[in-house]
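Observation: inputs received (chain + acetoacetyl-coenzyme A).
Thought: call the complex predictor directly.
Action: predict_structure
Action Input:
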Amino acid sequence: MSETLTQAGMNFELSEEQIAVRDAARDFAQNVLKPGVIDRDREQRFPKDEIKQLGELGFLGMMVNPKYGGGGMDAMSYVLAMEEISKVDASCSVVMSVNNSLVCWGLEEFANEEQKMKYLVPLAKGEMIGAFCLSEPEAGSDATSQRTTAIDMGDHYLLNGTKNWITNGNSASTYLVMAQTDDSKKHKGINCLIVEKGMPGFVVGAKEDKLGIRGSDTHTLMFTDVKVPKENRIGEDGFGFTFAMRTLSGGRIGIAAQALGIASGAYELALAYSKERKAFGKAISEHQAIAFKLADMATEIEAARLLCLKAAWLKDQHLNYDQASAMAKVFSSEVAMRTTVEAVQVHGGYGYVKEYHVERLMRDAKITQIYEGTSEVQRIVISRGVLKD
Ligand code: CAA
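Observation:
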């Protein structure tokens, strides 16, 4: 059986540090994020002050080595924190996820020392935010088909093209941009360049008006003859696609944990409501029709949590987690959809209005089946792994 399906020595007993991280994230979510989350969603307002505070608490560079300004925590702590923040505000947790997993991890793992000192340190400290720019109008799931070009001009690259659906599109200062340098080499001709906001020719385009995670800023980005210095390339020439795939593999643990948090947040609200709300002479939780829904939600959430922790544990042990993160993401995101729909149902008419939070969680859940690889992409990754065994 595949190593990623069973693994000896897995230990999910939480350490004191992990519990402290989880509790700090829970306090922050309940006390700082919850009061304004409905308004931010309605107004599509980026949680600027809240993200600043998250950075000061060390949640934007959780896994980065302290010598680069990070928290030096493990991936399991990251999953625990992502779940707690996502229970309340998935718009905030996507900023956290992209900054931690796609930007900081990618830089720490693959950037050179100068790049780390210049970009990783302020990103890990939360002094600036990063964005990961892979998707294009015609390259979403089919990520090898990059149309954005980075032509080698000797001491710099000339960057041209358009990126779509970029999380932190306007609020970021540092952008990791995948672009094709040598078409004849296909995906082996792709590079990842560090692009700064304000570089001439770089324009942040329209903000998307989204179904969910409406507080996060998702933009189109346009690059017209942007001169990006050669020293801003990450890794060797042609390393960009591998960079993107390796980084996304860890990113999927973050989004799986986000989906888990959306599900468990909706479940906790449904559980509490079902104990208060009376119908036919007793609390609705005492009706089997509702109790069985709660039982199914609790079971699926537990399974999702175990998959998330397993993927994080593998990462912490420096073992391969490509399949495990895809499994965690596809399952957790489907659990998030099912659970939030049922949480609205448990709330009845109240569930359909904003005040009770579950309708927002239901809208937020959908994106977890789409970004950082659709459910179909996760199944490609998983099936290839399974068939290889
Ligand atoms: N690690 C290292 N290398 C990897 C890899 C991994 N995890 N996965 C693939 N590769 C390598 C392969 O080994 C292969 O290399 P060789 O040619 O040397 O053998 C190369 O990459 C191409 O791989 P495939 O043949 O598997 O490529 P494919 O075209 O069949 O596509 C895919 C595979 C899994 C579908 C991939 O394209 C993919 O992941 N697509 C989804 C992209 C995605 O997740 N986009 C999300 C955008 S970012 C985002 O959403 C952030 C946000 O805002 C929140």
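Thought: report the result.
Final Answer: The first strand starts at residue 130 and ends at 133. The first helix runs from residue 16 to 33.
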